[in-house]
Design a protein that fits this description.
The chain is built from four helices and five strands; from the N terminus they run αββββααβα. By secondary structure, the chain is an alpha+beta fold. Strands 4-1-5 form a three-stranded antiparallel sheet. It has a two-stranded antiparallel ribbon with strand order 2-3. β2 and β3 form a beta hairpin. The protein starts with a helix and ends with a helix.
Length: 214
């Protein structure tokens, strides 16, 4: 039974690590590309300090499906494409809301790392046969809470981007959407961690009550 529990815990950690790694990689890649683009535009004298880069989801309209094209270097021909995501530069004011959104992304990343640490501590306790103890309940609750913070840390910036960009941008042949910019994986795992924590708490209380009646 403990072996199966360990396997399930390792699978959850793997999902967490993959989720954090993917988000971290693309956030870092986006930041790197952004810095390099700003430096290049600055050299060419084309830097517009009023423009901010935003990731947006694109949904082609029926009459524009596969209407765009890109050059295929392998065949030397153009291929028909429809874009699903893009990074756009929109002239917006970098106000307090934008600053808060960026801070939330940083908090989300830190919370994801902390959640992995707490879950590792839970697994270590299970391997030591310290299973039904209040410390594990606390670790699971912390894991769940931190994962929900991870979700909120990406949800609120998405709302800010949606509110800001949708009022300033309309691309011909495409509808804008932003829901795909947020992953619900952390939310699902966070709620699951809370559920397991409460199951553990009920089991410990029942165990304590039985010990008192003996």
């Amino acid at each position: 039974m403990k072996k199966r529990l360990n396997i399930l815990c390792l699978l959850i950690i793997l999902i967490l690590l993959v989720s954090v790694s993917i988000n971290g990689y693309y956030s870092g890649l986006g930041a790197k590309l952004g810095i390099e683009s700003v430096q290049e535009m600055d050299k060419k004298g084309k830097l517009d300090m009023s423009a901010n880069m935003h990731a947006v989801g694109l949904l082609p309209t029926i009459d524009n499906f596969l209407a765009d094209s890109l050059y295929n270097e392998k065949t030397g021909e153009y291929v028909h494409v429809s874009y699903m995501q893009a990074i756009v530069s929109v002239k917006t004011e970098s106000g307090t809301l934008h600053l808060i959104a960026n801070l939330l992304l940083l908090v989300s990343f830190i919370a994801a790392i902390a959640a992995v640490v707490f879950f590792f501590k839970f697994i270590i306790a299970v391997n030591r046969s310290e299973i039904f103890i209040w410390a594990n309940v606390s670790r699971l609750r912390w894991t769940g809470g931190l994962l929900i913070i991870v979700f909120l840390g990406s949800l609120l910036p998405m709302i800010e981007t949606s509110f800001t960009v949708s009022n300033l941008l309309q691309l011909k042949g495409y509808d804008l959407y932003f829901t795909d910019l947020v992953s619900v994986t952390s939310l699902l795992l966070g709620v699951l961690a809370y559920v397991v924590a409460e199951v553990f708490a009920i089991g410990i209380k029942m165990k304590e009550e039985q010990e008192l009646t003996i």
